[in-house]
Design goal:
Elements lengths: L2 H15 L4 E10 L9 E5 L4 E3 L5 H11 L7 E6 L3 H7 L6 E9 L3 H15 L4 E6 L5 E5 L7 E4 L2 E6 L4 E5 L3 H12 L3 E5 L3 H4 L8 E3 L3 H8 L5 E5 L4 H11 L6 E4 L3 H13 L5 H6 E2 L11 H16 L5
Organism: Oceanisphaera sediminis
Pfam family, one: XdhC_CoxI
Protein name: XdhC family protein
Length: 320
């Protein structure tokens, strides 16, 4: 899940609570080339305000024009973009791609607001769930996801959408690499939390859209924890911050844990974590040190690129 999904549901809930009817769009399938994968969402109001995306922009523009013209008055409908020559010319979908989109009209009822609230909590929390939409009755439901499967499933007249916590990046310590890494991660759709208790360096961090916590990263992890869609990276170059973060990070289900430093520094740190941190060999093996792909990076931006590339690689289960 991307942080953009959370922004979509946040706005959907806020607009619904304010008394607005909303239209929630979900990409059900793509054929050919498509900028967004199945499960991508967009929410819109009648006045054209919207958050999220379905494609590179052309589909959104067409949808909003039709919405403001009074279309999409039914509880739900499935529309296809790009499956005829007129669409391909008018919308200019990339490489002949085709999109299938579910459009739901959600009135500002208590039932819909409760549903949106639980979706929001699923994206923020540690539990995965499945959102069910009955295309005949327009009944929507939410139940625990206890199995693996595709993001979108079609079972007769029912659509099932898997919803889980958004990808999260916890950055321990502020440094020039942290700044570049936070910016890259935000662009990649991660929810980003930066933790540092040092007042003098907090004042130097200025990346929009980042959750900055003025506490030790170890305390944040101890109090807030993390879910399995979390990556934890220590980038401060200060052992008092980085080592403590690693000691707590290995107690979490994070899919990626890493700390910045040279090979020599990493060997010294590993020994220090064994001796003073009480970590065993299994714990040490979970920590990627030196962090990131070996691309010969030197500058802060290049190091951040190597870090984020490695995180994305591990997330998708790719070998080096």
């Amino acid at each position: 899940m991307q942080h953009l999904d959370l922004e979509v549901i946040d706005h959907a809930l806020s607009w619904s609570n304010a008394g607005n009817t909303i239209w929630l769009c979900t990409v059900l399938a793509t054929y050919g080339s498509s900028p967004r994968a199945p499960g991508a969402m967009l929410v819109a109001r009648q006045d054209g305000q919207h958050v999220g995306s379905l494609s590179g922009g052309c589909v959104e523009e067409d949808f909003l024009e039709q919405l403001q013209a009074g279309r999409f008055s039914s509880a739900n409908e499935i529309i296809r973009y790009g499956d005829n020559d007129t669409d391909k010319e008018r919308l200019k979908l990339p490489c002949g791609g085709v999109l299938e989109v579910l459009v739901e009209r959600l009135l500002p009822t208590e039932e819909h607001q409760q549903h949106l609230y639980h979706l929001q909590q699923a994206l923020l929390g540690q539990q995965r769930c499945i959102r069910g939409i009955n295309l005949e009755t327009a009944k929507i439901s939410l139940f625990p996801d206890e199995s693996e499967g595709p993001r979108i499933e079609r079972l007769g007249m029912t659509v099932r959408v898997r919803i889980g916590p958004v990808r999260r990046l916890v950055i321990a310590g502020i440094s020039p690499v942290s700044v570049a890494c936070a910016d890259f991660a935000r662009t990649l759709g991660f929810e980003v939390i930066v933790c540092d208790p040092r007042e003098e360096v907090l004042a130097t961090f200025d990346v929009p859209g980042i959750n900055v916590q003025p506490v030790l990263p170890s305390l944040y992890l101890e109090r807030k924890g993390c879910h399995a869609q979390t990556a934890i990276v220590a980038l401060s170059h200060d052992p008092r911050i980085d080592d403590l973060a690693m000691i707590d990070a290995v107690q979490t289900p994070a899919f990626y844990i890493g700390v910045m430093g040279s090979h020599k520094t990493s060997l010294t740190r590993a020994e220090r974590l064994r001796r003073s941190g009480g970590l065993n060999e299994q714990d040490i093996a979970r920590i990627r040190m030196p962090i990131g792909l070996n691309v010969g990076s030197k500058t802060p931006a290049e190091i951040a690129l190597a870090v984020m590339a490695d995180i994305v690689r591990v997330y998708y289960g790719r070998e080096k």
